[in-house]
């Protein structure tokens, strides 16, 4: 247990030392939040009703899909995994500690947005705080599952940059955080349903969603969990 | 002496290419043993098979009685890989702590001092020099106080000072009873450090023995330099081929030192001349190695 806790806290420290990670986890989402908070709320005062939800979803999607896979590709796509193997460090440990560290970082950014938005931009607090935070946590987990899968399957940082963008952009544009999803062509709405962000936006902006609304997120989490565990179990050193 | 490593009929293939062909090898406990061979000879593959990070096609490997893939083997063996890395932002202290915690051994920070890394305690891996990284990986390999340690080209990329320091550390590990198995290209290093060596050529063991035995078995490069009061003629003899004349010495190459000496001294006696000086230069390990690589397998 001591080794596990040390690995997680070490990953947290390493993430904070990594400028690239800090930019994707904190700096870009918060700058975007500041800009959009200023612009959206001036153009359309109604944006204040969903500013916290939309900016949190942006921060989560960006950090989990663009940021979180990077340390994994650097490790699993390099000789580091050999060093871990001979040092008796289980290979799953890197994925788990990265997941936990990323979760904490992303949750902190979401809290910053939650606290600052009403003060700085007069944003409206979610009507059901319990539901909001439950959805937030589920969304972070689902998004990090995607990020972890990217980190396990993609072999190089250059490929990761491209693939992450291919997933990140539609996840963002089709989620309904920039404009209402019902304004999109029907086919695009269906494509949007592939991403956790669309479902989360639907739940977070609905004061009394049905329990079944969570089902797609749970399915995404479960499916990716199975795929990630399978990939880790088949990972070779050679 | 008990065996640290026993290998029987080890065979490893990459696709249709057989890189290790039925290798039999034994390494005794407390030995410093080197695997030598040209690039692609199979040294690293063989080490990685013994270390348990590469699967092999057939044969048996035992490290202190344990299979290379076993959890027990990880507890008794330390490994410094030829090509390895650590997360860019981790520092030496954190790396050592991480490895020690997973190996369930006390964190021995004094090792960083012993291996000359005291100044790197908080230095990030990406900022370390090649030598410092090598030393750090050696520290990680010995941190669990293993009984056997595998070093794959441990001094590659090190400066003279770093090399000497690392050699001292390897000797110190041997004095502590550790068995050291290393792959190296550096003949001087091997000659200075190792008790025994094995030479791999095209996936087969071409020689096993001490470095001295290795130089004794081949006479092709032995040279006899003889200085005579009135000088010798530049002729060839049955066992001695005239090479050159330097500083008054006539230099001959020979395939048999004893026969060559006998015929040269006989000739000097016939001339009623006098031997002023005589030198025998056996081939160095490097010369013997090159000779073997060129096809003079024993």
Largest sheet of chain A: none
Mean pLDDT of chain B: 87
Q: Return the structural class of chain A.
A: mainly alpha
Assembly status = heterodimer
How many strands of chain A? 0
Radius of gyration of chain B: 24 Å
Helicity level of chain B? 25-40%
Question: Helical amount among residues of chain A, as a percent range?
Answer: over 70%
Coarse structural class of chain B? alpha/beta
Name the pair of protein chains with the most residues at their interface, and give those residue counts: A-B, 26 and 28 residues
How many distinct helices of chain B? 10
| Order of SSEs of chain A | HHHHHHHHHHH
Q: What is the CATH homologous superfamily assignment of the largest domain in chain B?
A: P-loop containing nucleotide triphosphate hydrolases
Under CATH, the topology of the largest domain in chain B can be stated as Rossmann fold
Compute the CA-based radius of gyration of chain A. Answer: 18 Å
Task: Explain what the structure shows.
The complex is a heterodimer of chains A (238) and B (298). Chain A is an all-alpha fold. Chain A contains eleven helices and no strands. Chain A has helices spanning 2-17, 19-43, 51-67, 69-76, 80-86, 91-121, 129-153, 157-173, 186-192, 196-204, 215-234. In chain A, α2 (19-43) runs antiparallel to α3 (51-67). The longest helix of chain A has 31 residues, at 91-121. Chain A starts with a helix and ends with a helix. Chain B has 298 residues and is α/β, with parallel strands linked by helices. Chain B has two domains: 3-214, Rossmann fold, CATH 3.40.50; 222-282. Chain B contains ten helices and 13 strands. In chain B, the strands form three sheets. Chain B has a six-stranded mixed β-sheet, with helices on both faces. In chain B, β11 and β12 (249-254) form a beta hairpin. The longest helix of chain B has 16 residues, at 160-175. Chain B is elongated and about 80 Å long. The two termini of chain B are 26 Å apart. The chains are: A mainly alpha (238), B alpha/beta (298). The interface between A and B is medium-sized, with 26 and 28 residues.
């Amino acid at each position: 247990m001591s080794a596990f806790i040390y690995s997680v806290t070490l990953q947290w420290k390493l993430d904070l030392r990594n400028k690239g990670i800090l930019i994707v986890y904190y700096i870009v989402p918060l700058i975007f939040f500041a800009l959009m908070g200023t612009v959206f709320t001036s153009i359309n005062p109604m944006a204040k009703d969903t500013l916290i939800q939309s900016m949190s979803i942006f921060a989560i999607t960006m950090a989990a899909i663009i940021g979180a896979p990077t340390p994994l590709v650097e490790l699993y796509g390099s000789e580091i995994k050999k060093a871990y193997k001979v040092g008796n460090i289980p290979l799953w440990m890197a994925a788990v500690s990265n997941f936990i560290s990323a979760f904490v970082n992303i949750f902190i950014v979401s809290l910053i947005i939650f606290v600052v938005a009403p003060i700085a931009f007069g944003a409206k607090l979610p009507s059901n705080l319990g539901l909001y935070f439950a959805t937030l946590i589920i969304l972070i987990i689902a998004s990090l599952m995607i990020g972890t899968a990217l980190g396990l399957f993609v072999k190089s940082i250059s490929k990761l940059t491209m693939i992450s963008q291919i997933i990140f952009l539609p996840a963002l544009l089709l989620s309904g955080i920039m404009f209402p999803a019902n304004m999109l062509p029907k086919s695009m709405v269906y494509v949007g349903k592939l991403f956790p962000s669309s479902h989360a936006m639907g739940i977070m902006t609905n004061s009394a969603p049905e329990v079944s609304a969570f089902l797609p997120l749970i399915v995404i989490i479960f499916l990716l969990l199975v795929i990630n565990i399978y990939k880790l179990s088949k990972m070779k050193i050679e | 002496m008990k065996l640290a490593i026993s290998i029987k009929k080890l065979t490893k293939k990459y696709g249709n290419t057989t890189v290790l062909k039925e290798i039999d090898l034994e390494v005794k406990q407390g030995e410093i043993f080197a695997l030598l061979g040209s690039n692609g000879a199979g040294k690293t593959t063989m080490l990685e098979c013994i270390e348990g990070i590469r699967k092999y096609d057939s044969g048996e490997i035992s490290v202190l009685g344990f299979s290379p893939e076993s959890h027990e083997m990880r507890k008794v063996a330390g490994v410094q890989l030829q090509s390895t890395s650590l997360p860019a932002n981790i520092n030496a202290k954190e790396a050592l702590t991480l490895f020690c915690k997973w190996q369930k051994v006390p964190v021995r920070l004094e090792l960083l001092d012993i291996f000359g890394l005291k100044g790197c305690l908080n230095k990030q891996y990406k900022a370390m020099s090649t030598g410092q990284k090598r030393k750090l990986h050696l520290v990680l390999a010995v941190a669990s106080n293993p009984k056997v340690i595998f070093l794959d080209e441990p001094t590659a990329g090190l400066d003279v000072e770093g090399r000497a320091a690392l050699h001292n550390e390897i000797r110190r590990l041997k004095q502590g009873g550790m068995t050291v198995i290393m792959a190296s290209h550096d003949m001087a290093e091997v000659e200075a450090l190792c008790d025994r060596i094995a030479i791999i050529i095209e996936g087969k063991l071409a020689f096993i023995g001490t470095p001295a035995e290795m130089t004794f078995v081949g006479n092709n490069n032995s040279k006899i330099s003889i200085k005579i009061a009135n000088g010798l003629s530049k002729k060839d003899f049955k066992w001695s081929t005239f090479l050159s004349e330097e500083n008054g010495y006539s230099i001959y190459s020979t395939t048999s030192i004893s026969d060559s000496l006998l015929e040269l001294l006989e000739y000097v006696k016939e001339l009623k001349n006098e031997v002023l000086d005589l030198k025998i230069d056996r081939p160095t390990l490097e010369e013997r190695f090159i000779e073997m690589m060129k096809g003079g397998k024993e």
